[in-house]
Amino acid sequence: MASSQSTMVGAGNPVLKWLLRLLVVGYLFLLVAWPSGYIVRRTFEDGTQSFLDALSDPDVTHALKLSVTVALVAVLINLVFGVGMSLLLVRFEFPGKRVLSALIDLPMAISPIVVGLALILVYNGRYGWFGPTLEDAGLQVVFAKPGMIMATAFVALPLVIREVVPVLEDMGDEQEQAANSLGANAWQTFWRITLPGIKWAVVYGVVLSLARSLGEFGAVKVVAGNVSGETTTAPVLVQQKYQNFEQGTAYAVAFVLVAVAVVALIVVALLRPSEHKTARARVGAGKEPS
Amino acid sequence: MSTATTSVAGGRPARVRRSASRHSLTRGSSLGLGVALIWFSLLVLIPLCAVIATAGENGWGTFSDALTNRQTLNALKLTVLSSLGVTAVNIVMGTIIAWVLVRDRFPGKGLIDLVIDIPFAMPTIVAGLVLLSLYGPESPLGVEVNNTRKAVFLALAFVTVPFVVRTVQPVLEEMETDVEDAAASLGASRATTFRRIILPTLAPAIFAGATLSFARAISEYGSLVLLSGNLPNRTEVASVRVYSAIEGGNQQSAAAVATILLLVALVAIVVFDLIQRRLARRG
Questions:
Q1: CB B177 to CB A215 under 8 A?
Q2: Within a 13 Å sphere around the CA of B143, how many CA atoms are in the beta-carbon half?
Q3: Counted domains in chain A
């Protein structure tokens, strides 16, 4: 099999090739694969029953439910915002577009703790810029669900946009214009032409956002405070249980979170080839780049 | 909020005609842009401004207090130095991993592709727990790094694995091998081909990945909580410092350290961009 690659640089020297393979496999095995796999052993070393017992702990079910609720709302917001923003950035011209597109990547470079700090400085009920006013109007943001949803939405904000924008650019707008000229309104054009074209990028972005949102720790921890378990999400519970020497429970919750993340990755890996194929087919069909 | 933003996508029905097409905003899309900008400001821009404004409330006093505090200074130093070290490791290892993934072929390669994404999808607190179970007090390997600076390095290396790989990989896939073949047939050694042909092409991608990985490393929090022990002056990083200031009700010094972190990220982006340009020019 490898002999078909003989023209490629690096393939000529088998020693170098094996050295690189060994280096890569060894590095990733020791750093990522082994630790990630080892957690399975730790979780089930006392048998499946203790794993199930740990999961039926009311603290755990409450935290998992809360995490799922917060993540779903945050992903929904980011989905709508992300698709809309991508369309605006790719299909329209307006002043400040380049700045906006740079700013959207900002959340990736900010510490989750700073995200939390930023949100409480504005929305804290006592000293925040808007907090007291909102609290008078009956909306508590910090130490409650709205703040946790905002923190989660903040950290996962660019994920959908990063997936959708390149696909939209690649797709071009000839078909949309054709639909328009045939009398379709903007809404019909979006549902029948644009959305089918970006479908897989959207799904990919949503899966990534969901994994990120379920696992968000630092930002949510700052915003949620310690309201006696009411606002404890699953990742925060992992820390609490571990530090309270309930390691079995900590590993059980961690295992659930890892399982969700790995399933999300497998879903994405299964989706990715189809996306690649269509991209290649489009290039093959002689479409001029950009 | 969400229903209003949906109309961004659709624009306003019926009014959009070809002549009004994509270069200027229609009424519907400007409404959508307005709603999206308000949400973005409320969520991201105003809160970040609040951090900088709070830090600057007393002029430079808060900053000089933060920078003269030995514990804070040590935390910042540890954060920046470890992040630079981890980024250097990623530049080398990330490029090699991407190279092997694109140019080599062997059974199980798909699995490696999957493993690389694990740190990106895994919750940070779980990443810390996972590393602790293998390299912590009950380590089956007998390697015990928890509560040391090595633990900080390990955690940062774990969470930043995907960045350089994922930026270099697509560029390497697009790259034609015939230029390399031509160089080789003209008598260039493998090292020369790598230095003169391959590296300049990959440099922008490598440094884009390095920037992401550095930015991620200096802002890391979750994976360090359980693993590094957060010992003052020894294994405490900047994010942990910000967190304890928030917990202690000292929002101003939290904001000062946070602003310094933002500045470091900004400087890093500029510096990495300069290096990358220089490398790309040396074709």
A1: no
A2: 12
A3: 1
Looking from the CA of A206 toward its CB, the CA atoms found within 13 Å total 17
- Displacement of CA A116 from its chain's centroid (Å): 18
Please state which CATH number belongs to domain B61-281. Answer: 1.10.3720.10
d(CA B208, CA B212): 6
Instruction: Kindly state whether residue A289 falls inside one of the protein's structural domains.
Output: no
Model pLDDT for residues A82-98, shown as the tens digit of each residue: 999 998 888 888 888 88
Tens-digit pLDDT profile for residues A17-63: 888 889 999 999 999 988 888 888 888 888 888 888 888 888 899 99
User: What is the pTM (predicted TM-score) of this model?
Assistant: 0.83
ipTM for the complex shown: 0.82
**What are the tokens at B243?**
């967190």
Interface of A with B in 136-195 (CB under 8 A): 150, 153-154, 157, 173, 177, 180-181, 185-187, 189-191, 194
User: Does A226 contact B at CB distance below 8 Å?
Assistant: no
What backbone phi and psi angles, to 5 degrees, belong to A218?
A: -60, -50
Residue B136's alpha-carbon distances to A148, B70, B162, in angstroms, are 31, 28, 24
Residue A80 within a domain = yes
